[in-house]
Amino acid sequence: MLLQLNNIFKWVNSGGQRIFLLKDINLEVQEGEFISVMGPSGSGKSTLLNVIGMLDGFEEGEYHFLDESVHNLREKHRANLYKEYIGFVFQQYHLLDDLTVQENLEMPLLYKKLKGAERKAKVADMLDRFNIVGKKDLFPAQLSGGQQQLVGIARALISNPKLILADEPTGNLNSKQGEEIMDLFKQLNEEGVTIIQVTHSEKNAAYGSRIINLLDGRMI
Amino acid sequence: MLKNYLKTAWRNLIKNKAYTIINIGGLALGMAVTLIIGLWMEDELTYNSYFSNREEIAQIYQSENFNGTIGTGPAIPRPLEKALREEYGDNFKHIVMSSWSTSQYLEYMETSISRDGNFMQSEAPDMLDLNILKGEKDGLRDINSIMLNQSTAHALFGNEDPIGKIITVNSESPMTVTAVYEDIPVNNSFKHLSYIVPWDKYVASMEWVKNSEDNWGNNSFQMFVQIAENTTMSSISAAIKDVKKESGEDIAEFDPQLFLFPMEEWYLRGNFENGKQVGGRIKYVWLFGIIGVFVLLLACINFMNLSTARSEKRAKEVGVRKSIGSQRGQLISQFLSESFLVVMLAFLIAVFIVLISLDGFNDLSRKGIEFPWSSFNFWGISLIFVLLTALLAGSYPALYLSSFKPVRVLKGTFKAGKYASMPRKILVVLQFTVSVAFIIGTVIVMQQINFAKNRPVGYDKEGLIQIPTFSEDFTGKYDLMRSEFLASGAAIEMSSSSSPTTRVWSNRNGFDWEGKPEGFQEDLAWTDVSPEYAKSLNLKIIKGRDFSREFASDSAAILINETAMKYMGLTNPIGILLKDNAPTDPDPPVKIIGVVEDMVAQSPYEPVKQAVYAFNREEYTNFYNLRLNPKQSTSQNLAIVERVFNQHFPGLPFQFQFIDEEYGKKFAAEERVGRLSGIFTALAILISCLGLFGLTSFVAEQRTKEIGVRKVLGATVFNVWNMLSKDFLKLVIISCFIAVPIAYYVMNGWLQEYPYRVILKWWIFALAMIGAMMVTVVTVSFQAIRAAKSNPIKSLRTE
């Protein structure tokens, strides 16, 4: 088992009222799964993803990740945990504008304090695997959306995460580019990477092995 | 990692050129100011550091009580030397009597030059540890020897070996050059010491010096000492305190207190008030130090403000970096290395600015500061300074930016809260508080200078020159020269005097007169003058009459000034006799024949001192004062004067000073402070405006959408401009209200030092406030109007 959420509640107080973002979420994810989270706008998909990714906290409940009790961990340990095991892919790609493709890929490795030679090898590997060697010295602004998302996925993968969290990865792409990205996810999943994606599209959700539906913060 | 940080930072700088120029340029300016001030402070604080024995050298000072006012100064009487040597000799390694620095003519073959130097006892070179380049250190043994500094030796002898050469001093006795010493550097109390002549020569050649051997009342000399090992200045001061007081009853009346004034305090702490040491130039060292820190602070504030203002733009970057594994510490070091890069670049530019402006600064501040290329300390301190600035300027943005939560900023919903701009506003207020205070301070300094400059001096200083007549050659020539100069048509009147018009060189006391209050101890400024003195200066007689050559009795007559009349308690002074009450060999009594209007001879900031102008009974004189012919041009007059002078004194160089220029020198220190603070104020305002400019452009950018919406709804350019300017104007107004009381307090304190001072008027403050507001409006308007004029469709589409 990769992770387990037990009775997770998340809320904000607004004008004396408690507004629930997540209500009593129970979820178990095994290694090698490909899960799609679906639901209308505001149903809590992204919030759930951020909680799983440890970028966001929660008010009540338990979260176990690889036998670590995340709810008991300090901020710093939590950061170390996701740094080690989780890769993020965003709808807006979120590449660093001032860095080239190559440098963007290298960044997570720098934060993990890997040696220069090791970093170079991994970056070269990844460029090769995604077929973007020719683009390595370009800046994000010089790439198309699909290419940028490709770099985004490559960056998420470079530190060998166990889990990839993708928040509407194809939301800003045209259908052909979207299809390519989804194919890539499928291929990664087959290679053993666990993936949780948030999506609006039935078609994309179908790539997954399991679908979770959310409505007003509840799983249905 | 660091490389990566710096690379990112560099690309960031290149990308935002306007921001970079404002940021680095402003910081560089601030640093240049701080560097220059730092170099200046170092120069001031190391004054006299040339002397290796400086910690042990002191000058003997004395305080005397004149009717409750204690005056302190270095002038001491001759018999003190004997008393100290005989009874307190163990305390001193060296005791050196010295004359005041005087200008003398030195002649060798055809070359004749005028230089300043002293008569000093033979231990002087040893005490000062002069660096002897040629000859012997013990070169003042023989009464006819002279030691020269290097530049004087070069001026006289060129490349010849000066040792053993014979020169004449003041066309009198021949003196043998026994040694050449290294020039004493500019930042030194002895910088004018171009030659040293034996003290014994002084005693032998001047009758009055010889006669003062046992006279405790003649304070006309200086004494320098080096204290013995295992003693302290304060213990010796305590021991010798009353040596002079015990010399006699007439002396004890003035309660003279002797003490050692250490060399290390001469320059920076040389002011005394009522017998107490009250600082001195050190005040300006601190003042400029504070200004330097403030200017740097202003520049750092710009950096902080612009960085945090850009935070919304960089928030996304922080979020991404955090989500791909950056820890807060890593982000902090990234932002700090960015700020280090900026500060380093600014420092390099600042060094360049210092290099190109150092000459101008030296002219302005009368310094000889050189850029300390090879000083390990300078570079070490600079590095620390750069690191500290980077930390100071970069810490706030680093902590602020790195605290963003990735979820918030990545969702695109990040909006800085209502109070996020609060620290920024406080910093802007701080900046303008400093700027406004600087403006007020500078205006007041300038006003005070002008006020003193416009003070009526009591005589006509235009068209008046003085010719120094220290050489014995002038003795007995006054009448002849006067008729020659008048006949030449270059001068319409001429007089002689023992002090220059713009100074008082001697003060006297110990007189009795009819109606003198019991126990009154007078202190009179005393100048011996020729009978035409008042006429040549256009000094008005307000009571009695001027001197006249027709009355033989006038040779025992004096004029007093108006202040002296009140000071001495005389309502009808004409005919009053002043009797010298010295127990031995008193001067004959003198009679007051007239009262002249007060003339400002000393500080233009102080009341005129009670003064006596005595008919010059002897043949010696120190200055000729010539009233030039107003019907001819000054250059014509001067050419004629020079020709006449050279006919009569062919061996002496023609020297003269314009009295109005000499008088103007009294303002030099204040004018320097005024000009420097003017420049620093201008820079402070410039830096603050740069920051404001940058800040407005970011605010305009941030509010692009709002401006677009407002314009669509019908807002005019003026509405938008008003909206954007108002926020900043509010801050500046707050600054004004903080700055005014502070500036008032500080400047009022500064003015207290000047008895003759300008009155602080409210409109100075109002003017400074209006000025600051105008500058703000202009600066802000550049951006505000641009933003207001932009096409709303364009700005709305970018969202």
UniProtKB/TrEMBL annotation, chain A:
InterPro entries: AAA+_ATPase, ABC_transporter-like_ATP-bd, ABC_transporter-like_CS, MacB-like_ATP-bd, P-loop_NTPase. SMART domains: AAA (SM00382). Keywords: ATP-binding, Nucleotide-binding, Translocase, Transport. The keyword Nucleotide-binding applies. Transmembrane segments: none annotated. GO terms for molecular function: ATP binding. Residues 3-220 form the ABC transporter domain. Belongs to the ABC transporter superfamily. This is ABC transporter ATP-binding protein. The lineage of its organism: Bacteria, Pseudomonadati, Bacteroidota, Flavobacteriia, Flavobacteriales.
TrEMBL record, chain B:
Pfam families: FtsX (PF02687), MacB_PCD (PF12704). The chain crosses the membrane at residues 21-41, 284-306, 335-358, 378-401, 426-446, 679-700, 728-747, 762-785. Residues 290-404, 679-792 form the ABC3 transporter permease C-terminal domain. Coiled coil: none annotated. Keywords: Cell membrane, Membrane, Transmembrane, Transmembrane helix. It comes from the Bacteria. It is found in: Cell membrane. The keyword Transmembrane helix applies. It is a multi-pass membrane protein. Residues 20-242 form the MacB-like periplasmic core domain. The keyword Mitochondrion does not apply. This is FtsX-like permease family protein. It comes from Flagellimonas algicola.
